[in-house]
Write a structure and sequence with these properties.
87 residues; mainly alpha; 4 helices; transcription
């Protein structure tokens, strides 16, 4: 049986520990404790899965390069703004 009665009862401290678990910064004992909790708590397991999905999407997005035309437009606007403020 889960020790969570919905996310409201363990969300803050438990979710902080789950984020640390995902980051790989917990001791072996803490990892085992979190794994056991995730197996018995569907609410936290759902939040864990969502966090993993978000991190995967962010990692994938960070590898994509901006189109060269976007870079050129941004640099042109910066140059225009600098010129306008110098006048």
């Amino acid at each position: 049986m889960s020790d969570c009665q919905g996310l409201g009862d363990c969300a803050d401290e438990r979710m902080k520990r789950i984020y640390e678990y995902v980051d790989g910064v917990l001791s072996r004992e803490d990892v085992e404790e979190i794994q056991a909790h995730l197996e018995s708590c569907p609410e936290c397991a759902k939040e864990y899965s969502l966090e993993c999905l978000i991190r995967t999407v962010v990692k994938r997005s960070c590898r994509e390069a901006a189109p060269e035309t976007l870079k050129e437009r941004i640099l042109a606007r910066i140059s225009h703004a600098e010129t306008a403020s110098a006048v």
